[in-house]
Amino acid sequence: MTTPLILAVLILVAIAVWQLAKIFELSQLSTGKKSDATIADDDDNKYNGYLLFAFLVFIYGITIFSFSKYGKMVLPMPASEHGVDYDRLMWISFAIIFVVQTITQFLLHYFGYKYRGAKGKKALFYADNDKLELIWTIIPVITLAALILYGLYSWTNIMDINDEGDPLVVELYAQQFNWTARYGGEDNVLGDASTRLIDIDKANILGIDESDPNAVDDIIVKELHLPVGRKVNFYMRSQDVLHSAYMPHFRAQMNCVPGMVTQFSFTPTVTTEEMRLQPEIIDKVKRTNKIRAERSAAGEENSDPWQFDYVLLCNKICGKSHYNMQMKIIVESEEDFQKWLDSQKTFGETVIAVP
Amino acid sequence: MAHEAEHHHKETFITKYIFSQDHKMIAKQYLITGLIMGFIGIAMSLLFRMQLAWPGEASPVFKALLGKWAPDGVMDADIYLALVTIHGTIMVFFVLTAGLSGTFSNLLIPLQIGARDMASGFLNMVSYWLFFISCAIMLVSLFAEAGPAAAGWTVYPPLSALPQAQPGSGLGMTLWLVSMAIFIASSLLGSLNYIVTVLNLRTKGMTMTRLPLTIWAFFVTAIIGVVSFPVLLSAALLLLMDRSFGTSFFLSDIFIQGEVLHYQGGSPVLYEHLFWFLGHPEVYIVLLPALGITSEVMSTNARKPIFGYRAMIASIIGIAFLSTIVWGHHMFISGMNPFLGSVFTFTTLLIAIPSAVKAFNYITTLWKGNLQLNPGMLFSIGLVSTFITGGLTGIILGDSTLDINVHDTYFVVAHFHLVMGISALYGLFAGVYHWFPKMFQGRMMNKNLGYIHFWITAVASYGVFFPMHFVGMAGVPRRYYQNTAFPMFDELTDVQVLMTVFALIAAAAQLVFVYNFIYSIFYGKKGSQNPWKSNTLEWTTPLEHIHGNWPGAIPEVHRWSYDYSKTYEDGSYIIEGQDFVPQHIPMQPNEEELNH
User: Model pTM?
Assistant: First the structure.
């Protein structure tokens, strides 16, 4: 519906621009000005100088517009321990960027406007100034050094995946186009696995080594449940192509690579229930459901009311249904988690014995 | 020598326009091929932007252009990925590498250093024709039965290696790899030629520290190309072997469509290393020539020397060196050792320093100038603006910690489109407006159409890519056919529509450029020999193109190329009544050589 409309508008715009240009050209011919429409004259310098200044206003305008309109949609409240730290570093970096952007864009466009050319004007022969250049080398050096140090400190902490504090062990298993999670079960140890051991007939979809005693109590599920406040160590595998386990609410992401096991770790801090009560999330759900209600009124699909849930997305191009490769994440209290885990069947119970 | 050059003039149509060995003609061939590819690439982006704004909606445009890939006019998910892939490939390699560097290196290196032609005209011709063949193969791949390559422009295996993983990984992918291999050969021949020419064929007096910054940029770009493109060639060849001969360089432990494949011991991470060893320098292969062009255009039109000439050279070299040791920032979360991530964070943020120096130097070049706001100048200023806006977010992406959550989201797409896509395109446009008279026998482009072109493009490209950062920060992954599977992205549909409308407007503005370009080739007004009152040597050649460039002896060079508005101590210009001193003018008595 909208496409032909847009196209029609575009064609009209193109024609209008064309005509405008023609008129422009003709008017310049008829006034008999010395200008031959090839080299900027004083008028061009003047108008384009003004436009450069207007463009500065536009850049500031689109910045303010974007922050005020879309600002609330970005970086939802972090739900992991390191997420808070992540957000702090992000906003510090943003503050620095914002200041530099505001100042440099101002200087660039303001100079463009202020020093627009005119007949008889003389430019300043100014080729060098070691002191100035030193200053604007040193300032970025110091700023970046601080950011690098802070960043590396956080990075080392986040990527230090160890067994301290009895972490829950979870395997995230990716395949075109869905996710599977595996828990270590009673012993919290994952049984060995390899794609070569996959046996669909025996319902051994993850290729778990049946002879490994650690594997018997493993639990395989299609919904990721995590206990709040307990560190989770993720071990990621993929059976076919690259995938990436992206959990934006937890500021967590790691690629899943066929042929190797990758790792990530975080501690969830907010349960799904608690998150749903956050004013920020309530607002977001309200906004979203308004859109969905409109869709529903128009008789369109995909319009059921939405309830907030954490989600795991695939974030590495993996084929046709890449855009819909997801798994629900539920963060809950330790007791609820244990109750849920106990209700699940173990690998030993589900695998079909050799006939 | 000069006499000899004139005798060669009896040329057939074929040797003059098709298999030409003249650098000026080859430059034009590169430009026109690059522009045609550019318009194909941009058209593709419009198709997938329409799909993103109006997901799943049928459109007669899709039906007409995509045929069987748009049953009932609804775009298919596989062709969406193919469009994204081919758009990226075409824009990065065919337009911004060959179209930009190929055009202006060929046109300007001999003209600005004072050489009759490239060191090897024959290699130069071969380089263009290899480029042409690789373009042709890439376009042919669009018609592969199962569809063109669709694994993203980085073509990571195993997705790109296994035809079972997606239809585009069949014949389409093979053609993609063959096309790239030929492209790399073309690029290497071109680069070697540029390096040899700059080192050996400079005219008398043209020392390295008198070279215009354009030449420095092209020269260093060629070196980066020679260092890094062969690595991509090896990646492409190994990938071809994995695909066609059953080797396991990048593949291991794969179970797909119900069967275990034989591959054992390879690693996709190895491919990522090889790819980005080129892939990141590639960003600078694209960007440095654009910055070189900007330096020249900006200085000329500001009627001022470029500020900090030596610092500019140092930063070009610094960027080139650092660019070869930062590739890992594309792989922070690839599964490689996190310690390696720390090292790459460090080198990556270092590269911000020479980049910052360049930006500040451009701004200072404008200060107290007498700015002639020609279209080329506006595109140069626009370049600095997008270079800053896009470059700054690199501080976030280059930081391994912050990259975790924005990696592969639209934040990345916004970042690199501004900092290398739009910036380099602006460089290309600045170069075309500025050197059009040099390419087309003195004909000039219409400035008013140029202004319309610039202003619509400038506003619309910010309109596309500025809000895109927010989409990425909200967590929307790139290369999603549609975002409807996640209710949490529902409220971002408005932004998608806004961006798509701006993209359509930006594309429409390019039609103004096409019209201006084609019209001016045939009917553009003839300007003077040196229309922009520039100092560089190319403006001392006659309007009509001749083999050997200068009818007489090659001019000798006596100064750097930035003596704009230079005065004696009493404030009078070096040459009375003229605010510039071309490079071939000898030092005047009492004149001090101010070559910084």
Answer: 0.94
